């Protein structure tokens, strides 16, 4: 979305116009951090960007880059992480391109090596499986769905009843960019989902679930109410963390993906099942290491999938 600006446009007006542009162009996935970053830049500059010459703005941007490299997080005293600085640079470059202003050649994103994602070892898997036995029907189905399909947290909480076809052994997931993909349901997951779905489709659940979430698969009681609603992301995070110290739902996704790769599933197929747009994304995060690792995955296969 293009706008007309002149040297009288204030930073406040510019920020509002940029926000409208991001929403209109459907680039609002990271709307809040983008706008926060640009707002911080404007406060640092102390003057309206539209009143600054290209040369003066270029010099100011380089000074700001040096500023954020030396900046400390106020609540911890630590310096900003390189990945955070990279995001700042990325957001500011996008804003300048939208504004049609030149960007200094040195004002580029930092190269930050991608960290390998953590996946669970066999002892952690055993600990999780033992803890699962203490959960109720719904929570056990939630954790097993994450563990045995590799779906994202957001995808889990928006799963609908019609997305799960137990008779065919398939789950249909609506992923990022509204891209649909189908994932097979392993036998242990089917045995966990079957009794829960029978209860979910029962008359008691049918009348208790709020209208907006009537088709959502996983629901829980609302606070201070007899009604039921979909799960909050934080609820699932706390549930998974309660099974093993500092465990996050995404670690279950990584474990699933690593298991697939060790089992010899081709990288493009794994990428498709995870909902990655590019196979390079999968290759950068997950690796296929040594014989010791292969033995571990073999043990994990027996523990999870029987």
Largest sheet: 3 strands, antiparallel
Please state the structural category: mainly alpha
Total helical segments: 14
CATH topology grouping of the largest domain:
hpI Integrase, Chain A
The count of strands amounts to: 5
Strand order of the largest sheet: 1-2-3
Proportion of residues in extended strands: 5-15%
**Annotated CATH architecture of the largest domain:** Orthogonal Bundle
* Rg for CA atoms: 24 Å
Query: CATH homologous superfamily name of the largest domain?
Result: Intergrase catalytic core
Give the class-level CATH name of the largest domain. Mainly Alpha
N to C succession of SSEs: HHHHHHHEEEHHEEHHHHH
What ranges have pLDDT less than 50 throughout 5 or more consecutive residues?
Answer: none
- What multimeric state do the chains show? single chain
Helical proportion, percent range: 40-55%
* Overall structural domain count: 2
């Amino acid at each position: 979305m293009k706008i007309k600006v002149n040297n009288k446009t204030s930073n406040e007006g510019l920020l509002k116009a940029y926000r409208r542009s991001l929403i209109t162009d459907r680039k609002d996935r990271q709307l809040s951090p983008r706008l926060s970053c640009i707002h911080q830049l404007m406060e640092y500059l102390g003057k309206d960007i539209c009143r600054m010459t290209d040369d003066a703005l270029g010099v100011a941007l380089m000074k700001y880059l040096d500023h954020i490299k030396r900046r400390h997080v106020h609540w911890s005293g630590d310096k900003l992480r390189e990945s955070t600085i990279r995001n700042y640079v990325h957001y500011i470059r996008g804003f300048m391109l939208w504004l049609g202003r030149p960007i200094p050649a040195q004002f580029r994103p930092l190269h930050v090596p991608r960290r390998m994602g953590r996946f669970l070892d066999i002892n952690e898997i055993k600990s999780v499986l033992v803890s699962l036995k203490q959960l109720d029907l719904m929570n056990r189905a939630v954790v097993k769905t994450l563990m045995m399909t590799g779906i994202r947290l957001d995808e889990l909480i928006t799963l609908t009843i019609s997305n799960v076809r137990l008779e065919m052994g398939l789950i249909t997931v609506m992923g990022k960019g509204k891209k649909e993909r189908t994932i097979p349901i392993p036998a242990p997951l089917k045995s966990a989902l079957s009794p829960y779905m029978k209860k979910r489709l029962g008359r008691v659940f049918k009348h208790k679930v709020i209208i907006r979430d009537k088709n959502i698969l996983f629901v829980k009681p609302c606070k201070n109410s007899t009604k039921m609603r979909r799960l909050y992301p934080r609820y699932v995070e706390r549930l998974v963390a309660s099974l093993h110290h500092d465990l996050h739902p995404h670690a279950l996704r990584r474990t699933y993906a690593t298991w697939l790769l060790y089992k010899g599933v081709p990288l493009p197929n794994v990428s498709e099942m995870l909902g990655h747009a590019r196979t390079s994304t999968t290759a950068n995060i997950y690796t296929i290491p040594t014989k010791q690792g292969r033995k571990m995955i073999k043990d994990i296969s027996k523990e999870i999938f029987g």
